[in-house]
Design a protein that fits this description.
The structure is a homodimer of 742-residue chains. Chain A is α+β, with helices and mostly antiparallel strands and 742 residues long. Chain A has a six-stranded antiparallel sheet with strand order 3-2-4-10-7-8, covered by helices on one side. Chain A has a six-stranded parallel sheet with strand order 27-26-25-24-23-31. In chain A, strands 36-44-43-39-40 form a five-stranded mixed sheet, with helices on one face. The longest helix of chain A is centred in the last third of the chain and has 25 residues, at 555-579. Chain A starts with a strand and ends in a 16-residue tail after the last strand.
Chain lengths: 742, 742
């Protein structure tokens, strides 16, 4: 069997490729050169204030990792491999000073057979080149438009400029039997009616010195489904096995994410197990389909095409996709652990999400991310690392993209959670300038077709009919999201944002006390994206908060107000998108998580796993079945006619029994009964519009009203909406004059 | 050198694959089994009346071609090949009763080395299978949705149900030197600024028994540009040669379609030429680009993508594409000759067209079509044989499509005239039901990317922003094309039709005298698509003609009226599309030609090369530079305010000098001066809007008025528009009552 040997690494930098580092420090592998250096130099945390700026120089030098190989004795029937799952980004591997491997691209793992080539105490070096930057490009993401390094680290509106480098994934020596499994893959084919599967396994062996291959297959309870033996000694074995009535893998909310286990054992000439490969199989079929009614449009001549499909169908069932945009959970991918992924994916599941869009500006996650998503039933929309740039198809760029995309496809295609390939983010918009003709995207379509034809592929998001944005509670024209969203039409809202500040206590961890209040541009607030991050106004949205509330006298009050807008804004958009089913089939807010502590952001979870109030609002809006209200606007005054529409939303595979809904208005301590609705049974995955309340708001001296919708006997379906309220116009105080614009 | 030996074929049919035909008749090769049989049986012309119906049974039997090989003596340094450029559709080749080749697909040529295998008088058989039909499909084009046979012959609204079968392209024996050129291809790479080319030639030899390869390259005047010799004896030779400042190939109206000639000679050990391959090279670069201003849309959040690009750029210059939809010029592709192509392509050039969309319902044309387009500067938009069906990506269908598309790409990619690959016709519309996810289209993207990445590829037409239809002069809502078109927006009008009847004398050639007038459904008029061809009303458009003119008392008058509507309709649409430049970059009417005599059709040329009046109207509308008028509607009455807008249209690469335009209204013999416009100089490829006439129409007793726009000193820019006119409402006659709806 195999035996891993961990290596002790040190790292140092030099400015020329031929230079030798003056100093080396212990290196954590996997990790990042920046963190190793900072640790030894005693630098302050890069997440505090503007400390990250001190790391800028590190992206422009060479970093040399070295280790002295501690090689035990290798027997005759053994071999020695150096295995590396990823180096960020361009690098050489040297043994005793001689280059034995060169590569550009962080997503292609490599292994080197060192048997008979490396001696004990030999020096193995990984020389990491400076971060790639296109010559002549202005500073920022454009520098990354001729490489396959994620663009986000070159600076984004929620990510500081900090470009990681180094060994970012598992790296070790391994002693293997001389005859071992070089590679194996299990795949399947489901019949049309999903009743039977044909399972395939391919196994590549390193030699023909074995007796047989034994293939075991277990169900989710560990019961053996079959065990077969194969005596093909050609070094490549293709095995096939029918599986009758397999239990299907379902995404969260639709059924169980059933996983089977495959164990492929290589049995040696002595009858003992030489090597084995375990993997999991989730049986499911995915298609990208047209929504019901889609073919009826366009109606008129001259006639253009119908919108491209974006409704995901899993196992023959069209599914409303609820979720979020996943970004890199750390600036430095090397320090992401299984726990990082597990916590965040579980929180997504708990928030009733079923899909994460793994955004093209960030990294392709490590294996454990996908394993956890497989287990939790969280579908993954996986983008290739292209985002908001025009990635011109030069031969050199296409060569790297070809290599990296093939590695990514091969690594991820066995995961049932991965349901969609996408070329990258917003590539068909003005700020990117790519088109359907861009060679990079045609190459990705080609590779996905060649290597993974049963999984859908789209070139980018948004496509026609899909929508991105806006990223404010209040639009520049003065309308709020309550006023805008019911009038938009989209086949999928694949990005939309409502920014909100982080918790006050959390802000204090990375904003120096003297800068904390009031928030100002030019301080750490700006470094952490509260100001001048994207279009004006900024992610803190001071002007929007002041528009609704006037000035805030304390950090705590400001945060409470900003978080209120974020929470109600997200609730409004998610529920509205669900109401627009089946034309709309997807609602993914921008964004889920963040890679470092932002002061304000569209995220619903502060780094690392701290939910904002908006997280709970989203969770409520994404319940499979709920009573919901379409509310005409956020801000109300006494005397106005309050006219929320009642709805029941159901995206579950189950019917909802008939029942009774009552709506109430809470004003201070008062609870006013508004309406009662006896609704009939709802079919599975179907919404139902109910009556429209018409109620003249009384004059009261409160600052908010609450619409509460209660379902008799089903409190888990209850909903509430906290809205702004003013009894009368207030002019007594200059700060409130702008409130007249309500 | 090579020597061709023509073969004498006979053909007969049988109902089972094992059967032997009872009777054989002489066969014309290339040709079609239907024509051979009809010739000998003395059947009447399939184009007359409903004779084509008698051919129906022929699509369901096996057809056996046989020939006795007349093999001369083959010397030791020679070999013998059977060469066949195409058999329609599925077939076996047998030598002395033994199957030596099997194939499905008419677009993949094949050759068989018979050296030492075939003796004199041996029987060679080509057994053609019945026409492919998907089991369970209803009669019509749907039967063709699992094959790569053009769907049109299964019946279309301008094509009878008549499914050709047989040897449809050149087929012969060939004696070759044992050492000969198996294949060769010349390609090039132009530098960014189009100043220098790198020319490549690849040559595959059948053996290494040669001295050298000699490569000669000649300019358009026959002057030698270079001559190089290569002594590589590996059997595969790749040659490279820089060409400085090559003259570029330009489409019609933009420059000369310059072609160079390459001659690759295989020189034997005795110093003599063993074999040679001639080919032509047209240096040009093609891109599909966004039109000026395209990136500014969409403006609003939430934001979808910008429209996909459809503006063709040739040699760095965006070109307004003017042309038509090319369909198969014969029902039986085997009888298409070089002359067929030459006449039709030259007529397109004379009509100022620069692009033909080779429609996906029809065949991929023979080589000579593309050679003629290369010579005449006519760009070709080439579709693969998919049209108006859902071609489900079953493994068997994908296998044939893969083979056929690779053959097509390899054959056509050296032609400069071919500027665009397209997956097929109207595949993303309801009546087809395919999407961007369809495996067939992803396969075509893959093959075009792999084999021909520098040529654009689109999956279908229309894409978003592009428009197809309508196909009437008058819409169901009562508006005419003059009223509709100025209010439509499209990036490209890639299909639009205005039907018109054929000439009266021509109609008499295929409609029996007793059916000729008045036209009625259920007669040969219907067989030839005048009635019940597409949506009601039909291609003759009797109700539209009667709407404008009342009943027609003679065939001649009916034809004149129908042709008037067609001519003015097409002029209106083409000129309006040109006015909408640069948002719109393409105007292609449906359709150019036809495969048999239609009684009424959207075509502008009756089968085979008989122009309708609409042809001349289109020719006028497509002049590079012309005075034009946007006219609010077709039908006018005395007392109405006549308000045409004057324009100058210029899509040439030249400026138009300043000048003077006068507009006149001709009413009977009167010529009324309306307006004079002194226009400034126009830039190349730029239109200019001029003044709007405002003139109150007088009351006169005429049935038409004519707007005449004259350019001082440039009569070639003059335009005229003949419009319907009535002095007053006429109620005297029941037939005219409906004219009140004008």
């Amino acid at each position: 069997m195999r035996k891993k040997i961990e290596l002790d690494w040190s790292v140092g930098f030099c400015t020329g490729i031929e230079d030798v580092p003056e100093k080396r420090v212990p290196a954590a592998v996997p990790g990042a050169v920046q963190l190793d250096w900072a640790r030894v130099e005693g630098w302050e945390d890069y997440t505090y204030a503007d400390n990250y700026k001190h790391y800028a120089w590190m992206e422009d030098v060479y970093w040399s990792y070295v280790t002295k190989l501690q090689v035990p004795e290798i027997k005759e029937d053994e071999c020695l491999f150096f295995v590396c799952m990823g180096v960020d980004y361009k690098f050489q591997v040297k043994l005793q000073g001689k280059v034995i491997h060169e590569q550009e691209g962080m997503f292609t793992p490599f292994e080197i057979d060192l048997t008979g080539k490396a001696a004990h105490e030999d020096e193995l070096e990984i020389l990491v080149f400076p971060a790639p930057k296109r010559k002549g490009a202005p500073e920022g993401r454009t520098e990354a438009d001729q490489c396959v390094k994620p663009a986000v680290s070159y600076g984004w509106d929620w990510h500081p400029r900090l470009v990681p480098l180094g060994i970012w994934d598992e790296t070790y020596l391994e002693i293997r039997p001389a005859c071992h499994i070089k590679d194996s893959e299990v795949s399947y084919c489901l019949d049309e009616n999903l009743e039977n599967a044909l399972l395939f396994a391919e196994v590549w062996l390193s030699s023909d010195r074995y007796e047989k291959i034994q293939w075991e297959f277990y169900d989710r309870n560990g019961n053996l489904v079959f065990c077969r033996e194969y005596y093909d000694l050609s070094g490549y074995v293709r095995m096939e096995q029918a599986v009758e009535k397999p239990q299907l893998w379902w995404p969260n909310g639709q059924g169980e994410p059933v996983l089977y286990k495959s164990v492929i054992k290589l049995i040696g000439l002595n009858g003992l197990v030489l090597d084995k490969k375990e993997s999991r199989v989730g049986f499911r079929r995915v298609k990208l389909t047209m929504h019901p009614g889609a073919w009826e449009y366009p109606e008129e001549f001259p006639k253009t095409r119908s919108n491209p499909p974006i409704t995901l169908e899993i196992n023959g069932r069209q599914i409303f996709c609820k979720g979020s945009n996943w970004v890199n959970p750390e600036i430095f991918p090397g320090i992401i652990t299984d726990e990082t992924y597990r916590n965040l994916v579980r929180m997504a599941k708990e928030a009733n999400m079923n899909l994460l869009r793994s955004w093209g500006g960030a990294i392709i996650n490590k294996d454990s991310f996908f394993e956890i998503c497989d287990e939790e039933g969280i579908m993954v929309w996986q983008e290739f690392p292209l985002s908001c740039n025009n990635y011109i198809g030069t031969p050199e760029y296409l060569r790297i993209l070809d290599q990296e995309s093939k590695s990514i496809i091969k690594r991820l295609r066995t995961h049932p959670s991965v349901v969609l390939w996408c070329g990258g983010n917003e590539l068909f918009n003005a700020w990117s300038g790519m088109t359907d003709q861009s060679l990079a995207l045609r190459l990705l379509n080609r590779n996905c077709y060649d290597m993974d034809p049963s999984r859908p592929f789209i070139m980018t998001s948004p496509l026609t009919g899909m929508k991105h944005g806006y990223y404010r509670f209040r639009y520049p024209d003065g309308r709020d999201v309550f006023q805008v969203m019911p009038h938009t039409v989209a086949t999928a809202y694949t990005e939309f944002g409502c920014p909100g500040p982080a918790d006050a206590e959390y802000l204090k961890k990375f904003i120096p006390p003297e800068e904390l209040f009031p928030p100002r541009p030019g301080t750490s607030w700006e470094d952490h994206h509260a100001f001048n991050a994207w279009q004006s106004p900024d992610w803190l949205g001071l002007d929007i908060i002041e528009h609704y509330f006037g000035t805030s006298d304390s950090l705590e009050l400001l945060v409470e107000r900003g978080q209120w807008l974020q929470a109600e804004g997200y609730k409004c958009i998610f529920e509205e998108a669900r109401r627009q089913k089946p034309v709309c089939s997807m609602a993914l807010n921008w964004c889920y998580n963040e890679p470092w502590p932002t002061a304000a952001n569209n995220s619903i979870i502060s780094w690392r796993t701290k939910p904002k109030p908006a997280y709970y609002a989203v969770k409520a809006a994404l319940r499979p079945v709920l009573a919901s209200a379409r509310i005409p606007k956020f801000s109300w005054r006494g005397g106005e006619l309050f006219t929320p529409e009642l709805w029941i939303l159901n995206d579950s595979p189950d019917c909802v029994p008939a029942g009774k809904i009552k709506a109430f208005l809470q004003i201070g301590e008062e609870e006013i009964f508004l309406i009662e609705w006896n609704y009939p049974m709802l079919e599975s995955n179907t919404n139902m519009p109910g009556p429209i309340v018409r109620y003249c708001l009384p004059h009261r001296d409160v600052d908010r009203i609450k619409l509460v919708v209660k379902v008799d006997g089903c409190p888990e379906m209850n909903s509430e909406y906290t809205l702004l309220y003013r009894a009368t116009e207030r002019k007594e105080d200059g700060n409130h004059v702008r409130m007249l614009n309500f």
